[in-house]
UniProtKB/TrEMBL annotation:
GO terms for molecular function: beta-fructofuranosidase activity. Belongs to the glycosyl hydrolase 32 family. This is beta-fructofuranosidase. Residues 338-515 form the Glycosyl hydrolase family 32 C-terminal domain.
Length: 525
């Protein structure tokens, strides 16, 4: 959240080690979302309602500008019995909000009426309706497999009443970390405050809503875009199959995400967590585990069908003074070109590709028309194709023993009723050769990019940060974060290449690459 000139990030943290357990709410603050100061934890187990765990939750800005936190507590030693608690700042005049208090009336929401008490967590940011009531969601599981977002109402954040029907549900398994927020539907990139779109009828007519859930079983986040009926307190996805064919913020290692509205720049910002892909022993040795992705600005695509995401503009302050630029470079089939003149272990790379002809594109197998992951795994970066794979090898060693591939591959659409259809674009990250270290988890990640490539043009941006590769395809229509742990391509030994393993030649219209500086990280303030 943003409060009195400071951004506040609260996150699940184990102060006793680089393994899961002893979870508290750590607290860091920043002026610019890039350089952070770590404060002491904001919320720790201290009352009966959270004695055995302070789990996830959300912050809400009240009408008078005072923040309030709702979070999940575990209150029994023998079972993860989950209740919802409230915390308030001890001193609202402190812009750093260094102390939080828990009122004696906690817990304020308990699992009644047949709710599964071990699957009942992660309250959302609340929104205020025209009737003066605040509403929030709590994620849950109904029966064996139905994910549910329950609606609770309150005037005072103390007495909460559950609505007769959930906001929405679907047979996807448990819904963790739900998020529900408005987005402008008129093509603008401005964010919308969670409450304003509900109170202001004129604003309500110009917005769509996003419902995002984290799937406990599949360990990824998916979302739908739809309509919020404020009277019925129900949400309806625009795509009836949206809960089946999942749109995802990120097709890689990205989970338990959360957005907030930034009033300072009138934008909505997305945070996401990426866990480690090395071993627990490695985590203990390095003393930390888990990262937050670079914050992303999110807004609705003009088509209204999906969100667009882009790294916040502040990350560009970490760019070195002079970029390396490659222009109008043709990359022939089977060729790779090294990008030299900068260190690329920490870099920001933007590239625009042009494909001369799509005639060599292979026909998409109908069996894989909805399974980008399977398609990428079956035909990775080294498998010769028609149009692609083409893209970047990042964190590559001099002899290419190690490399992480971020690439596109273009297919003719699967034959359906004789129609031509537009080409299908697959975006992949393939880290299967990213490290020579043993015992690494190196899954390929992939998603289809809803873009028209009939003109042969597509763009890619990759943020490279030693063990993290975050990539944004076609202006943020598809995003993939991957964790990699090279043993050779480290520091000055990391290299960057453009490659083309397709039959059609491609052209790099322009590639611009910057070395990235480290942000300032200060602890114990």
């Amino acid at each position: 959240m943003y409060y009195k000139g400071w951004y506040h990030l609260f996150y699940q943290y184990n102060p006793k080690g680089a393994v899961w357990g002893n979870i508290v709410w750590a607290h860091s603050v920043s002026r610019d979302l890039i350089n952070w100061v770590a404060l002491k934890p904001a919320i720790e187990p201290s009352i009966r309602a959270d004695k055995y765990g302070c789990w996830s939750g959300s912050a809400t800005m009240m009408a008078d500008g005072t923040p309030v936190i709702m979070y999940t507590g575990v209150n029994r030693p023998d079972v993860n019995y989950q209740v919802q608690n409230v915390a308030l700042p001890r001193n609202g005049s402190d812009p750093l909000l260094r102390e939080w208090v828990k009122p004696g009336h906690n817990p304020v929401i308990v699992p009644e009426g047949g709710i599964n008490a071990t699957q009942f967590r992660d309250p959302t940011t609340a929104w205020r309706g025209a009737d003066g009531h605040w509403r929030l969601l709590v994620g849950s599981l109904a029966g064996q497999s139905r994910g549910v977002a329950y609606v609770y109402r309150s005037r005072d954040f103390r007495r909460w009443t559950r609505a007769a029907q959930p906001l929405h549900s679907a047979p996807t398994g448990m819904w963790e970390c739900p998020d529900f927020y408005p987005v402008t539907a008129d093509g603008r990139r401005e964010g919308v405050d969670t409450s304003s779109a509900v109170v202001d009828a004129a604003a309500a007519a110009r917005v769509k809503y996003v419902l995002k859930n984290s799937l406990d079983l599949r360990r990824y986040d998916y979302y739908t875009v739809g309509t919020y009926d404020r009277k019925a307190e129900r949400y309806v996805p625009d795509d009836p199959a949206g809960d089946e064919h999942h749109l995802r913020y990120d097709y890689g290692n990205f989970y338990a995400s959360k957005t907030f509205y930034d009033p300072a720049k009138r934008r909505r910002i997305l945070w996401g967590w990426a866990n480690e892909s090395d071993t627990a022993a490695d985590d203990v040795a390095k003393g930390w585990a888990g990262i937050q992705a670079i914050p992303r600005k999110v807004w609705l695509d003009p088509s209204g069908k999906q969100l667009l995401q882009w790294p916040i503009e502040e990350v560009e302050r970490l760019r070195g003074k002079w970029p390396v630029i490659l222009k109008d470079r043709v990359v022939k089939p089977g060729e790779h070109v090294e990008v030299t003149g900068l260190q690329t272990a920490q870099a920001d790379v933007e590239v625009s590709f042009e494909v001369g002809s799509l005639e060599a594109a292979e026909r998409l197998d109908p069996a894989m028309a909805y399974d980008a992951q399977r398609l990428c795994s079956a035909r990775g970066a080294d498998a010769r194709g028609g149009v692609g794979p083409f893209g970047l090898w990042v964190l590559a060693s001099a002899g290419l023993e190690e490399k992480t591939a971020v690439f596109f591959r273009v297919f003719r659409p699967a034959a359906r009723g004789g129609g031509a259809g537009k080409p299908v674009v697959l975006m992949c990250t393939d880290p299967t050769k990213s490290s020579r270290n043993p015992n690494m988890y190196q899954p390929t990640f992939a998603g289809f990019v809803d873009t028209d490539i009939t003109n042969g043009k597509i763009s890619l941006r990759s943020l490279i940060d030693r063990s993290v590769v975050e990539s944004f395809g076609a202006g943020g229509k598809a995003c993939i974060l991957s964790r990699v742990y090279p043993s050779l391509a480290i520091g000055k030994n990391a290299r960057l290449y453009v490659f083309n393993n397709g039959k059609a030649e491609i052209k790099v219209s322009q590639l611009t690459a910057w070395e990235m500086k480290k942000p300032v990280m200060m602890n114990g303030a």
